[in-house]
Specification:
The chain is 38% helix and 15% strand. It is elongated, with a radius of gyration of 23 Å.
Length: 352
């Protein structure tokens, strides 16, 4: 229930206003409070919280989940955007044994510098799902796990496997950096006010150590491959826009004589993930449709410029060498993308 911009609310006409503790909730700010105590207990139980854990909660609202987290862990750091909710949270725990173990940060979680934490447990506004996921994955030192309530379709994209209809760039990038598991489905009637969609709770566990891959290179390749995820890679890499981009990168790197094997992985990830979270956007945008190019469906003419034709043959030669020409991104696993990236890099072709 934190994050995103607070917008001025227009007066409601004829509609019911939802309150808890005398505070009206605003759907436009993603304010949907969990009202089912059994569900709150289930989330805390599935989180695997240790009594020594520092817990990060995002969007605590009026503190229904916060209370259970304080009972389970050492302390809770709660990030809340709405000043009304901050006051309600502080009032609720004032004078209780929990007050000294609760730290409330008022602000936008996407803009805050997050302190150290062991585990994140949160019911978040769905409009910040993607940027928040990648902000958490770029946080250092790495936390043990995050258990987060997402809009169900977003959650299903996070856990989608090769061949699934929702398998996309979001799936591949998240699963490169973390193990992702679906924990439970949550119906909309468990919230006050009820949202328009169902939800799911997902466990995200950062990989330690991280895979030995340059993340900018990785995301550059994955973005192209999921441009049209059901096209063969042979057809995809024949497109004029993609060939022009890769040839420009190729010539620039040749001119600068850059080497791609020396990089600070943590720095690369920290610099890349914020932008990645924003480009993946919300659930109204299909991740595989992000690439916009008027020439997407136009193939390079074999009878054209000789140098352009040579570069195209170089690209297709890489695909053929790994038996990728007739394969589709929608069916490729992590190991396949890593193998393909290594083949391109060996041929001097880079994606960042």
């Amino acid at each position: 229930m934190a994050g995103g911009k607070i917008r001025k609310e227009r007066p409601q006409r004829g509609g019911a206003t939802h309150f808890q503790g005398g505070i009206p909730f605003h759907k436009s700010k993603g304010q949907h409070i969990l009202k089912n105590p059994l569900l709150v207990d289930s989330i805390v139980q599935k989180s695997g919280i240790k009594h020594t854990d520092t817990i990060l909660e995002i969007g605590p609202g009026t503190g229904n989940l916060t209370k259970k987290l304080l009972e389970a862990g050492k302390c809770v750091i709660a990030v809340e955007l709405d000043p009304r909710m901050v006051l309600e949270l502080e009032r609720r725990f004032q004078g209780t044994p929990y007050s000294s173990r609760l730290k409330v940060i008022q602000g936008d979680v996407l803009k805050c510098d997050l302190p150290y934490f062991d585990i994140c447990v949160a019911n978040i506004p769905y409009q910040i799902s993607s940027p928040l996921t990648f902000k958490l994955l770029s946080h250092r030192p790495l936390f043990r796990c995050a258990v987060i309530m997402f809009q169900r379709e977003f959650a299903m994209r996070l856990v989608a496997q090769p061949g699934d209809s929702l398998y996309c760039r979001l799936s591949v990038n998240t699963q490169l950096l973390a193990r992702v598991n679906h924990l439970l489905k949550v119906g909309r009637n468990n919230f006050r006010p009820p949202p328009k969609v169902d939800s799911s709770v997902v466990r995200i566990e950062p990989r330690k150590p991280l895979p030995p891959v340059n993340f900018k290179e990785w995301d550059g390749l994955v973005r192209i491959c999921f441009n049209r995820k059901n096209k063969t890679l042979g057809a995809l890499f024949r497109q004029k826009g993609i060939l022009a981009l890769l040839e420009k990168n190729f010539k620039t790197l040749q001119a600068l004589q850059l080497k791609s094997d020396g990089f600070d992985q943590d720095a690369e990830i920290a610099q890349s993930l914020s932008a990645l979270g924003n480009t993946l956007g919300d659930m109204s945008i299909d991740a595989e449709e992000e690439w916009k190019d008027d020439d997407d469906d136009m193939e390079m003419d074999d009878g054209g410029d000789a140098k352009g034709s040579d570069f195209k043959n170089k690209i297709l030669g890489v695909l053929k060498s790994g038996d990728f020409e007739d394969k589709r991104a929608s069916k490729l696993a992590q190991a396949d993308f890593m193998h393909l990236l290594s083949l391109f890099n060996k041929a001097g072709i880079h994606f960042s």
